[in-house]
Structure formats: C-alpha cells, structure tokens
Predict the structure.
Amino acid sequence: MRIGELAERAGTTTRALRYYESRGLLRARRTGNGYRAYDETDLALLRQIQLLRDFGFELEETRPFVDCLRAGHPEGDSCEASIEVYRRKLTELDDCIARLTEVRDGIEARLARAEPRCEFTCDGHSDGHGDGSTR
C-alpha cells in the first residue's frame, strides 16, 4: 500500500509517517517509480507506536517495541527491552502520582484552614457582623 492508504488506515497523516520514517521507526520500501510502499507489518508497527503514544510514551520510548515486532515477535511487548520500558514508565507514573498526591494534600490542608476564616470575610463583609453594619 502507498503512504496515503497507510495513513488513512492508521488514522494519521502522511506527514507523521514521514517523520516516523526519518526517525527510523518506519521503513518504507520504494516501488519502481519511487513511491513509498508499505504492508500489513508496517500497519502493525504503526498501531503499536500509536497505542504507546496514546499511553503517554515519548516517541523514542516506542523503539524497543518496534524492534521487537521487527524481530518477528507477535507482540511488541514480548521482548525484555520493551518490558524494561514498561517498568521505567510505571516508575515514572508512580513518582508523578506521589507528587500530585502531595500537592493535593497541601491544597486540601490549606482549604481546611481557609474555610473557617472565610465564614466571616467571604460574604463581602469584612467587619465580622455579616450584615454590612459597622456596629
């Protein structure tokens, strides 16, 4: 299939495919008239890249999965290098979750301190009477 058909079947653009090719993740064969030619294997590689990108993987992190598929494995994550990328990504996500939990806890604590003070000042009255008078 030509580049346009591959892009359409994968739900991407020819520009993206050319970029993947420039990064060595996709390898086009050339027809006699110089057109790029792809097959179902290339579509599988592209779908693996897209899945990982949807999960938040950087493009370079997809390389071990692509290499695994190119080596003839049925799945891109059936090689040790791919599994190692999964492990690193999980560690990265766990660290991110821990940081976000700390931030959330800090905001929750500040909210708990702020809410009682707001009862007297957040209704538009700063006098503590709540009725607008200055008694």
